[in-house]
Specification:
This protein has 223 residues and is α/β, with parallel strands linked by helices. α2 crosses α4, α4 packs across α5 and α7 runs antiparallel to α8. The mean pLDDT is 94.
Length: 223
Amino acid sequence: MPPPPPHGPEPDWPIPTFHLRIEDLAHPGAKIFLDQVRPDVALRDAVVTVCSWLYTPGTVPRNVQCISLVLRPMPGVAHTFGSPTHKEIHFSLDHIRNSESRAKDEIVGVLTHEMVHCYQYNGLGKCPGGLIEGVADWVRLNAGFGPPHWKREAGDKWDAGYQTTAYFLEWIEGRYGEGSIRELNASMKDKEYDEHVFKDVTGRKVSKLWKLYKEHLEEKHGL
């Protein structure tokens, strides 16, 4: 069972209308998807998870009115785009087929990641892509749907994205307190992104945080 979100009884989060389009019903990935999840429940749960980790009932954005999930044969995994009110998630049927051995967790994990992109702030479009993707995987990680191949790796860049940045954000949340990443996201709502947001939240520059994190990995995990 994944850990509960960091709140008590579930608040009344704003749930949009959901649409589903499957472009190839004969594709093996379509059958796997429909066998493993109820689309309406999976999408609603993803919205609740994202809202719970990134917002409070008083701060959650209420502009998203409709989310369309499109399942289709395509390379890659998934991507999300749209307007402030209408979002569209495209999810690869080929990826679902290739993930058959752990299909449900992968489906829910990908939907959670992509749902973050429907709701997160991006510093008026100036936030590094690596941080955008890192926040999405941080929510996925906290929801309990990180895939088995993910590893804590320092690497050269804090904003390498995806799980590299997700684990870095997890460390920040653990060291500087619950709500740190929620605060980081909120700081990118109405102004252009600047690295100083990390110092605003933690008291340290992101370069220093990355150095401390790499030292932590070396001490704790021998990386």
